[in-house]
Amino acid sequence: MQELKAFNEKRAEIYWWFSSLFAKELTEAELDQYQSAEIRGFLSGLGENPTLKPSVDRLVDALNRQIDREDGQLELAADFCDLFLKSDKESALPYASMYVGTTGLLHDEPAKEMEALLAEHGVAINQSLNEPADHIAIELDLLGNMIIRTNELEQEGHFEDALIEQEAFIRRYILNWVPKFAAKSQALDSFGFYSAVTSLLVAFLELDCNYLAGEAE
């Protein structure tokens, strides 16, 4: 159990890291950290998994090219804006409601479902993120909280039930739309940093579901 709980902490940290990347543009200081040994080591660790390596390699390549980019922070912030904040025709909007169903338009149902789940788990939306509850950053933040709270459980049966719940949440509320979001990001992101992040997210979600299914058996 202790090894599983330690691994859970790492899983939660990774989901919170993804959440932070989709929540807002990176500041100059945050971007500098991506050139540090600590974060480069973190990415290298992810890249040791064959499933994640192609996306990690793309992300590292984008970070290496970012070093030589004139006005790099402003350019990456513009990439974020172009990719996630414009109209549906111009951007890959990071909301479940854009990809769930057949309308291709923002609608309330996914956000209301997520609001109910946030309330059920007692997780508050960061007030600085003025977004509907079906925003990818909010869904990933909730998942991170679900994972950490699993570590409060002491009975093995309850722990396994929580892992089953996490897998079901990922499949029903995230993997039901994020691959489409990632595909649109690939098509629209010419520099490649955020498209690499979305590609890595999909690969990690799928890998995590396989892990959860195995641990809960």
Report the portion of residues in β strands. under 5%
**Share of residues in helices:** 55-70%
DSSP summary: helix tally? 10
Quaternary structure type: single chain
Name the overall outline. globular
Structural class: mainly alpha
The second-level CATH architecture is Orthogonal Bundle
The low-pLDDT segments are none
Overall pLDDT level = 92
CATH H-level superfamily: TorD-like
Q: Secondary-structure element order, as H and E?
A: HHHHHHHHHH
CATH C-level class is Mainly Alpha
Number of strands: 0
Radius of gyration: 17 Å
Number of domains: 1
What name is given to the CATH topology?
TorD-like
* Cα distance spanning the termini: 15 Å
- Report on the biggest sheet: none
